[in-house]
Amino acid sequence: MIKRKNSSWFARVVHSMLGNMTENTDSRRLPRWPFRLDTDKAVESVLYIAGRVPNPTLHSIAKVLFHADKAHLSRYGRPISGDRYIAMKHGPVPSATYDILKTLKGDSEFPLTDRARNSLSVDGYAVRALRPADERVLSASEMECLAESAHAHGAKSFKQRTAESHGPAWLAADENDVIGLESLLLEIDNRDELREHFAQDGT
Fold this sequence. Notes:
mainly alpha; 10 helices; about 10% strand
């Protein structure tokens, strides 16, 4: 693995924060990623975002999803689709969702459901919705967080979205590795409450 800027002051602070979080909760470590992927929710989330941001792209959708998942985890104790994030060069990327979109583009071989195959197309970096999102698949709370994130981040430039996503969670992960729950909580204000919940739950 390629360590990301571990010699920098900020990276050392991030890793110190991770250590302190563990020490402050009876040294109980959290599961790396305790959530189950729901590909139907992943597809419908992309469709929901694509209908609410100008010129949806692989990058804009990934970053809107990242902020929406953080908000939903903070408020409701779980991300939207359960997809895990990978710390890539230009910020966190939802792993399975990205594989679905790359397969639709012809650059990967992720097993596609009919829902994905018949709902989206990808040309270069541009993502096109072939139908509106099926809001029966998404809960009210999920649509709330997706809409808020699309409004806040969807129209920003590639450079702005990338810079905003290079926060403590991204810095704490190795390049092209999973951003674990422990790291993601660094960007969530009620992290102590959530950490206690997941430590007790043991999920």
